[in-house]
Amino acid sequence: MELGETPNHLLFGINYFSKTGFDCKIVPEENSAKIPLLYRLLKNLYFLQDLGHLGQQSYVVNNKHNYDLVYAPCSDRTEWLQYLRYQGKFDLPIVSLRHHHLAKGHLDIFRNRFIRNVCHGLDASPCLSQFVAHDLRVKTGVQGKTISWGTDIDFYQPEMNPGEGLVVAGRTARDFSTVIRALSGSSIECKIIFLEGHLGYEGEIPKNLKLLSSPEVQPVPGKNEGWRKLRDILDIYKKARVIGIPLYKQSTLAGLTSLMDCLGMGKPVIMTRNPNIDLDIEKEGIGYWVDAEDVESWRKHLDWFDRNPEQAVKMGKRARSLAENYYNSKRFAEEMVSIFDESWSRKQTS
Questions:
Q1: 94-147 pLDDT, tens per residue?
Q2: In order of start, what are the domains of the chain with their CATH numbers?
Q3: 285: number of CA atoms within 13 Å, CB side?
Q4: What long-range pairs does 112-115 form, CB within 8 A, spacing at least 24?
Q5: pTM score of the predicted model
Q6: CA of 299: how far to CAs of 207, 211, 244, 269, 310, in Å?
Q7: CA pair distance 320, 314, nearest whole angstrom
Q8: According to the model, what pLDDT value does residue 36 have?
Q9: Rounded Cα distance, 131 and 127, in Å
């Protein structure tokens, strides 16, 4: 983050909390020799709920006198602490940000009660979409508040020009094959940025497609190693007319991070319909939904953008305006701070 290679919205507010009076401390990922062994043993009992990062949670338990509240930017980190709090054996408020619905398994009958108890050990469970909040409420009775994630508007350098062609990037659940098949009947130029071995297409490559592959290796901060870094991808986005986010049929929030990039860059988007994402790109006038694996719909919208550069610019401006006025990391962090305040106040009065 300090090197300017990554936007701050990936910290889910952590960088902002100190500016509002919170002394934010990152719990170290230290493990004793016994914790990893215990964790492996518990993981083998797959009918149980995942207990999160036991090393970090053990550190918090042993040093809780140094803290007033526990915040987990991802909901799979604090399950053990939540269970302890449900049992009345841990007295710090816990706020855990839920990204995804509760996972299902073949032995849910054995673990559903435990999962409910773990979730009831939370003081607040903000959720990144209404779908996630609804799933949490139905399965556990916990009322999760929907909170809108937003992009780091200062990280991006948008250029409000028509650009040319389509650019597609991303790693999670990407359906590049459908886009490639749509290109065979379109004149629009396209670049697909992907990890080696993850293109998912073995047919003939259309002449209007340029493939940009990277090794499936975690990048090293400050070095030109690993897969293509976001700054490099954004330089390619700048020159595009429209960004594509093709997905397989989804039950997760896949594509949301890439959608934040579109808002930050002020670029319109064609995206596979994902009912789990609250932001409606068509209602907001920043792009078009397509159904999963719908080649003809992709081709239709690609041709529309190819013929309508001025409308593409207007869509991009609306996308950037959404980021500046609502879907931004500062607003997200402020809303999270208000959740902290509410949780702390309830503890003081209980």
A1: 999 999 988 766 666 667 888 899 999 999 999 999 999 999 999 999 999 999
A2: 8-150+329-349 (3.40.50), 166-325 (3.40.50.2000)
A3: 9
A4: 112/139, 114/48, 114/49, 114/83, 115/49, 115/139, 115/140
A5: 0.90
A6: 15, 18, 12, 14, 19
A7: 10
A8: 52
A9: 9
